Each structure stands twice: as C-alpha cells, then as structure tokens.
Protein: Magnesium transport protein CorA
Organism: Kutzneria kofuensis
Amino acid sequence: MPSLPSFSGLRGRSARTNGRVAPPVPVPLSAYVVDCGVYLDGKRLPGRWTHTDAVREVRKRREGFVWIGLYEPDEEQIQGVAETFGLHELAVEDAVQAHQRPKLERYDDTLFMVLKTVHYIEHDSPDTANEIVETGELMVFLGKDFVVTVRHGKHAGVGTLRRQLEADPERLAMGPAAVLHALADMAVDSYLAVTEAIEDDIDEMEARVFAPRTTVDAEQIYLMKREVLELRRAVMPLAVPLRRLSEGYITLVPEDVRSYFRDVEDHLTTVSEHVAGFDELLTTLIDAALAKITLQQNMDMRKITAWAAIISVPTMIAGIYGMNFDDMPELHWRFGYPIVVGVIVLSCLLLYRILRRNRWL
C-alpha cells in the first residue's frame, strides 16, 4: 500500500502569520486516496486513474467496476467522490465521522456497510498489559459498478487484500460484491486471530488465579473484560448484516457470492461463541480472584489475632508484677523471677502449638 503524503496531516489545521490566523490549508483529494483502480473481467487496467476518469471509463465500456480506497477523508474532500458515485449524504456523514457500530444500510441502488477492524496488541503478560485490543473502522459503499472503501485506523490491511484479489482475476470477475465479501472475510478472520490470542491470555490468567500462594490483581481482570467487551461490540452487531447479505438482501449481491457470505457468517458465529464464553469466564475469574483475596485477608487476620493472643500472656503477667505491691506473691523469693519467666515461655509455647495445630499460624 503506498504511503500517504506527508501533507495529509494538514487537514483542518490553520497557520499563524504575523499573529493572524490564516484559513485552513486546502488539502487535495489525492492526499486521502490510497488507491484507485479500474477492473475489467477481473483484471486491473493499467495506468493511474482519478475517480472521475475511472467511473467515466467503466460507464463508457458498460462493464467492469471501480475500486477506490480512501484514508480518513474529511467532509469537504469526500464530497467530490460522493457526487461522482451518487452516495447518500447520511452515509457520507457516517463515513467521515466514524465511531459507528457495524451495520448494513441501503440507499436506493447503493449499499453502505460498516465493519469494525481489530488488532491484538502484543504484550509480555496479561498482568501488566494496559491495552489488549485496538479497533478501527472500515466503511464500504457498494454500487453496481463501484466500490468505495473508507478506512479509519492503521491496521485494516486493505492494501494487502487488494493485491491478493488482483492475483485472483476469477474472483474479481464476480464484481463489486466479491470485494465486499473479501473485506468482510478479512475482518472476521482478524476476529478469529484476536480471539485465539485473547484465549491464551485468559488461560494464563486463569492458571495464575487458581495457583497456590499467588495473587492476581482483580483490576487486570477488569481490564481484560473491558477489552473483551470492546471486541464484542465489533463482533455481535455484524451478524445481522451478514445474514441479510447471504439471504439476498439486494440484487447487487449475486447468488454465487451469497454462499461466500454464508461461510463468513459461520465463522462469525464461531467468534461470537468464543467472545460470549470469554465474558462468562472472566466474570468467574473476577469472583474467584475476589474470593481468593478475601480468603487471604481472613488468613492474615487469623495470624494477627493468634500472635496478639500469644503476646497478651507476657503482657498480662508483666502488667500484674508491674504494680509494685509489697505483698505480691514470690516478690522477695529467690526463684520468683526465673519461675515467672518460665511460666511466660511455657504459656506462649503452648498457645503457639495449639494455634499452629488449628492452622491459625
């Protein structure tokens, strides 16, 4: 995937000149266009195309389709693409603002689909991780002769997918719906990979929770539960859109492509079951970790109480003999002091043995 021009970071920024705020620097649409290709019989036509030239070529030939990819465009820059392809203004607004749930909407002869992309963040241990799952968004506009993808986030992998499809002309020959299927399949495959990695983390955390003489910070389990919920928000809402596509929601998806969407739906079901299981298991781990902490606190209190009981014996005897009365027993006896010390030692040893046998110490 070609790198984005450095001036794309100028979007929405203003420059100061002699203390005055200059108007925002206009950024050309090319700053947001990652790639634009024209495909005929599954093969990409040579040359570089603008979105207007590409759609003009396709409609002149009355066959093939255009695939244009955008990266985080603003409302002004996407307007030209929207006018060229006839995209609905509400869908365009969603594509620019992002932060959408996975969904599928139909506007006249155009489909608008939102996919969540997920990425697993590598870490040394789930006990020390601050973030486990990072999400992005991929919006897809699908027409009879075009596909427009709008990417938010840096880990969608659309460029790699485009090259894979271009190496398989037979698949691209199925039309724009084949591209939509490939994008959905890529997203769901990434869900599978992330769930496998999270499963390893949960297994490691489970082993630590139930290991003897180890403590796990319940806050880390809460963090992992939060990350699983974020993954769940990406996975669960996608089930209905995939079902509608596999059942022939619109003629833009031909019958031979619907079966592929059924396969993606099956994979998504597997992911959904894993995520639901993670949620339940983490809830159990939280309860177990809190119970283990409570048990440990009870054990500590028992030990503190036991030592306090042992210490109270010499304290009591020393307190009695510290009252300095002349008529105290054995006060002037030669063996009084060693006998009192012996009584203290024997009493403490007896208490220690009893408490030790009862597992208070």
Q: What stands out?
A: The longest helix spans residues 255-321. The CA atoms of residues 132 and 224 lie 7 Å apart. Residues 1-19, 21-29 have pLDDT under 50 and may be disordered. The radius of gyration is 35 Å.
